[in-house]
Every structure is written in C-alpha cells, then in structure tokens.
Amino acid sequence: MTLAVDALGEGLLGPSQSAVAAFTIGLLLTFLFVRLNTRLIRAKVSWWFHDIESEGGLHMHHMVIGVVLMVVAGLSLIAFLPQGLWLQLVALAFGAGVALTLDEFALILHLKDVYWTSEGRLSVDAVIVAVCVGLLLVLGVQPLGNATSIGATGIAADVAIVIVILVDLCLAVLCLLKGKLWTGLFAVFIPMVGWVGAIRVARPRSPWAHRRYEDKPKKLAKAQRREDRINATWRAWREAFFDLIAGKPHLPSATPVADAAADAQRVETDPGSSSEEHDSHARPA
C-alpha cells in the first residue's frame, strides 16, 4: 500500500497535492478518452461503441454518468474520509466525473445539443480551465496567495489581509468584465497578472467595452486592432489545437449571431476557406 501511494506521488507532493494531482490526471485522461470516443462515434466506426439510447429513443448523454460518478465519489470523501491510496483513487474517480460533466458544459448552459457546434467549444474551455487550476494547485500556487504572505498578527494584519483579498478579487473581476477570461482566472493565483489585465484595453465585445467605449471611438478602434492582431496569431493556433484534441465543430451554430462571428473569424484566419459546413447526424455518447 505504501509503495502504491508513493508511486502516485504522495511521498513527493504530500497528501493534499497528490490527491489534486490524481483528480487532474483523472480529469485529463477521461476528457481525452471521451473526445476520442465521440469522434469515433461521429465517424460511425463499425467496431467502436455507439450512442446509449433506450428503446423509446431516449439518448443518455455522458454527463449523466459524470454526475452519478461525482455524487458517489463526493459521498465517499465525506462519509469515509479516505487516506493514502484510497484518497487518490476517489479523487481520480471524482476527476473522471468532472470531465464527463464539463465535456458537455455547453449543453447544460444552452439547454440544447450544441456539442458539435461553435458554442460547444465552450465545453473544451471549461475542461482546460479545470485542468489549469488543478496544475496550479499541484505546483503549490495558492489562490489569493498575497493574503497568506502577510506575516504580521493582530487586528491590523487581519484588516490588511481583507484589503489584499478584496483588491485581488476586484482585479480578477475587472479582467472578466473586460472579456479576458483566462487573465481573470490566473489573476486569482498570480495577482500581477490581474494588474496587467486590468490596465490594458478591454476586448471590443466585452461588457466593459460596451459600457465604457461607446463614446470613445479611438479606444474602441484600438481594442479592435488588438483583437484582430491576437486573432491572427495565437488564437488561430489555439483553435487548431482545440480541433486536434476535441474535434472540429461541423454543425451549424445554434444562434445566428454566433454563426456569423464564427464565419468572420474563419475568414480572418483563413481567407481561402469555404463557409460551407458538412452536416452529420452523429451524436455524442
């Protein structure tokens, strides 16, 4: 038992971080397997699994399995307080349940099957956010770490900690309002990132730009130029990477606005590409 626990990292990371590492591994491996599974189902590979459907035609999405797995793992953590290897195994199972659920996060948000549309790409973002948070915790980066670095004690120290936490949270929220979701996430762990994101110009379609740049055409134009420059560089690589690991969306967008935005982005990143979509009736498992 001790050798197994050490092999899973407790001897190196400690009980808490090794459990988070097991959670992150379960999350990542399950997500990659689920995406491989749904892509093979979409391709209608004869020797692979098929959709889970009842005789009445009810399709069971894999997020249902994920919710059940999270309930079982969560109750096990609360009721039995496992330690060592069992803690890591339960964390691994919980991570797998989270992956199954977050992989269809966009379906939960839109309350419709958008798995293979551009809106469905939000599920990939959700999984990557969860993986990044897990990796940061495994590396020992604590959220709102500025507050814990204050070494003084007493009322003055408590007031300083509250102020530091409020400032860090305000910076993260400001980044989110400016449309910088990733910057807002990392700002919770690395406050300096929040300062940079808060100072720099907002994204042109963000709530901040809609509210603050409406009567400032120069600033809005600056934001749009920066957005176009980013779209032409790393976001094109990001979409290609997402297509590689999660499959390329091929069904029409669930909303005309999102569909038009996706077409415009495709034209910007690949002017020679066609806007025609190849429909498919494959559904996720």
Question: In words, what does this structure look like?
Answer:
- The chain is an all-alpha fold and 285 residues long.
- The chain has a domain at 11-141 and 232-262.
- It has 15 helices and no strands.
- It has helices at 2-7, 10-13, 15-42, 62-80, 84-102, 105-110, 121-138, 145-148, 155-177, 181-189, 191-199, 207-212, 217-231, 234-246, 256-269.
- Helix 9 (155-177) packs antiparallel against helix 10 (181-189) and helix 9 crosses helix 11 (191-199).
- It is flat, with a radius of gyration of 22 Å.
- Mean pLDDT is 82; it is low at 1-5 and 271-285.
Strand content: under 5%
Q: Mean pLDDT across all residues, rounded?
A: 82
Task: Kindly report how far apart the N and C termini lie.
Answer: 36 Å
Uncertain stretches: 1-5, 271-285
Sequence of secondary-structure elements: HHHHHHHHHHHHHHH
Question: What is the structure about, briefly put?
Answer:
The protein has 15 helices and no strands. The protein is an all-alpha fold and 285 residues long. It has a domain of 162 residues.
Question: Which tags fit this structure?
Answer:
single chain, 285 residues, mainly alpha, 68% helix, disordered N terminus, disordered C terminus
What layout of secondary structure does this protein have?
Blueprint: H1 2-7, H2 10-13, H3 15-42, H4 62-80, H5 84-102, H6 105-110, H7 121-138, H8 145-148, H9 155-177, H10 181-189, H11 191-199, H12 207-212, H13 217-231, H14 234-246, H15 256-269
Helix pairs in contact: 3-5, 3-7, 4-5, 9-10, 9-11, 10-11
